[in-house]
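Protein chain data
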Amino acid sequence: MTDPTSIPPTSNAIIWQRQNLRELPKFRDGTTYLYLDHTRLEQDGRGVRAYHPEGMVTIPAASLSVLLLGPGCSVSHEAVKALSDTGCSLLWVGEEGVRLYASGLGETRSAARLQRQALLWANPQSRLRVVRQMYAMRFPEGLPPDLTLQQIRGREGARVRDAYARYSRAHGVKWDTRQYKQQDWNRATPVNKAVSAGNACLYGLAHAAILSMGYSPALGFVHTGKMLSFVYDVADLYKLEVVLPVAFREAATPGDDLERRVRTGLRDHMTRLRLLERMAADLLHLLGGDDPDPEPMAPGDLWDPEGNAAGGVNHAGHDS
C-alpha cells in the first residue's frame, strides 16, 4: 500500500507496518485517496479489508473518496458494493497511477463540479477565459492581456520548440521534429518513442486526477472533439516540465527496453513532484474552486427554467 505522492515505490514492507490509515493523504480540496497494489479487497461487515502478503488492514471506506487500484489487485463484488455505498470512486490504474484503465463512480457523488465545468465550457467567453488561464500557467513571466488567441498559440509553439532544443543540447540527443504515428511505431526515432511513452504515462495520471475530482475528460477547453480532450488540456500544462527531462535522459542512455525505462522513470519523477496533488489543486483553480454538496445523500433537484424544484417529493397537484 503506498501514497503515490510521498512514498518511494520500493518501500511496501515499511508501509504495511507503519501506515496510519487515519491519516489518509488528501488532495488540497479535502478529497481523501488511497493507492493499493498487489492487494485483495474483501467486504468486512459494512467496511472493506485489504489483504496483502505482508499484512492486513481495514480500509476506512466511509472517509475515503478515491481508491486507486494498481497492478496485482483483486476486489470482490461485495467489496465494490460496500465502497459504492459510501460514495467512494474506484480507479483501476497502472503502477503508481501511470496509465488509467477504467473507473467506477460512487453513486452518491455530487455533480456540482461537472456542472460547473459544463457551464464554463458551453459559454464562449468563460471558455476563452479558461483557455487563456491554461496558457498563462505555462509562462511564469505572464502573458500580455492584449494578445489574441492566435498570438498566444504562436508563443506556445516557440516555447515548445525552445524546450526541445534545450534538452537536445543538454543530453546530446539529435532532435529534428516531433513524430508520432501509431501505425508506424517502429520507424520512429528513439527520442520520439521515449516522448510518446512518457506522454502516455502523463495522460494516465491526468485522466485519474480528472475523474477523481468529478470532472469530465471529454469537455476540453483548448482541445475539442475527443473523449479525452480535457485530459490532453491538463497534461499539456506539465508535459515539458515532467516528460522531456526523463524522455531525453533515457534516449541518451544506451541499452534496451527504452519504453520501460521511460515509464518507470516517469513513475518515480511524478511521485517526487507530488504531481497528482498538484493537478487536483490546479483543476480547482482553473474551474472555480469548490462548493461541497451540503447533503450528498439527499435526492437531486429537478431542473426548471425558472429555478430548480425540489427532488424526491411528489409534485402531484401542480398539474392544474
User: Anything to note?
Assistant: The CA atoms of residues 162 and 168 lie 10 Å apart. The chain has ten helices and eight strands. The longest strand covers residues 47-52.
